[in-house]
Amino acid sequence: MRYRQKAYRVAYRLLGNEADASDAAADSFVKAFAAAAGFRGESSVKTWFYRIVVNTSLDLRRRRKRNVSMDAGDEEASLADSIPAKAENPFDAAERSEISVKIADAVASLSEKHRAVFVLAVVEELSYREIADTLGISIGTVMSRLFYARKYLQESLSGYLEA
Hints:
The chain has 8 helices and no strands. Helices cover 72% and strands 0% of the residues. It has one domain: Arc Repressor Mutant, subunit A. It has helices at residues 4-15, 18-35, 45-72, 79-82, 98-108, 112-123, 128-135, 139-162.
């Protein structure tokens, strides 16, 4: 399948673990197949599919977060509780190092709206227009979220990178 690895990569970056990413990617293909007849062509197939992947991944994370919260009996479970502290990228296994773990932790700590824009821009290299179409937001919002995501990452990694 043409988009299988891309779907997995986006889901992994949004969810932080391999099992959930595989589930989200598979669910995305099922949803895309079921919705294919309703595709109106208002955007490219690529951005339409990425939107399905992003929405499916975020929905799965919210469900997992609710389950973690219910299981722990703690209604104030943080985002960090539902995302592993040290998410490792399976595609760069040979290059795992302390800096890659720090970067993964920093990306995982971004809000979901900033992380989605960051992943689509930096990892998937989508244009601002494609990201806007995928997420259903304006190009200005894409630019703003990407700016603040990069600023946050720069600040959170500055002490480590200067050492």
